[in-house]
Amino acid sequence: MSVSTTGDELPCIRCGDCATVCPARLQPQQLLWDLRAEQWPRAREHGLFDCSECGLCDLACPSHILLLQRFREAKSAIVQRDAQMQQAAAARIRFEDRGRRLQREALERAEREALVSQQSTSTDAVAAAIERARARRLQARDRP
Question: How many domains does the chain have?
């Protein structure tokens, strides 16, 4: 039996011929149903990535379904989707870390401003500033 590439696929009759020739002992017809229903996690659970891509299921299929092509496309799509999900998760973590950092910096800035305003209103701080100014003037006079 030859594999047809002209698009004259027939519906899967679930005969199981593809499963009997699968060296990885997968259920290609179940994987096909999972992929058609876009049930990516179930396809993964049913061993999509265990498929060695030997092509025997295509040769055995009486309905001329291009199972290998569908499995390859699905693997590629799942890998790409996983990469996008990882990028999104990393971006979310960076965003949350940035928010925490900005909040921490704002609190530190507020504490510094409160300390400065407290010191500037304190008479001790004014007296200390006057004393520092006098000391600088004395040092400037003593220099040759």
Answer: 1
